Amino acid sequence: MPSWIDGALYPDVDPPTEIDTLSERVDFVARLCSAWDFGLLPDAETAAEVRRPIWRQAVDACRLLTSPAYHLLRVWHHLPELPYLGQELAYIRDDPNLNYV
């Protein structure tokens, strides 16, 4: 298994030894973003891997619109902006300093 594949992202099944197909990549992106949104940051090697151009199609296909991490991946891949459908917290949304974060 390549070192960039985080086995912790696969609590329900055995981690894959390779990720080659589009569907495997989409699944990995969904698992990665879900964990990231929960506060489990990816290793630098994993982040570098998903930034490679080969992941662009999987990121676009994933459409995890409730995930802030997913929207970051879209920015990294220069994909068109999509609507964020996640929770907007009023105490953050109205904070004038949010523009500087």
Please explain how this structure is put together:
The protein has 101 residues and is mainly alpha-helical. The chain is built from 5 helices and no strands.
Give unreliable regions as ranges: none
Structural class: mainly alpha
Q: Termini separation (Å)?
A: 36 Å
Shape: globular
Total DSSP helices: 5
Q: Which band does the percent of strand residues land in?
A: under 5%
Largest sheet: none
Overall mean pLDDT = 91
Q: What order do the helices and strands follow? A: HHHHH
| Number of E strands | 0
Q: Percent helix among the residues? A: 40-55%
Radius of gyration: 15 Å
List the helices and strands and how they pair.
Blueprint: H1 22-37, H2 44-50, H3 56-62, H4 68-76, H5 90-93
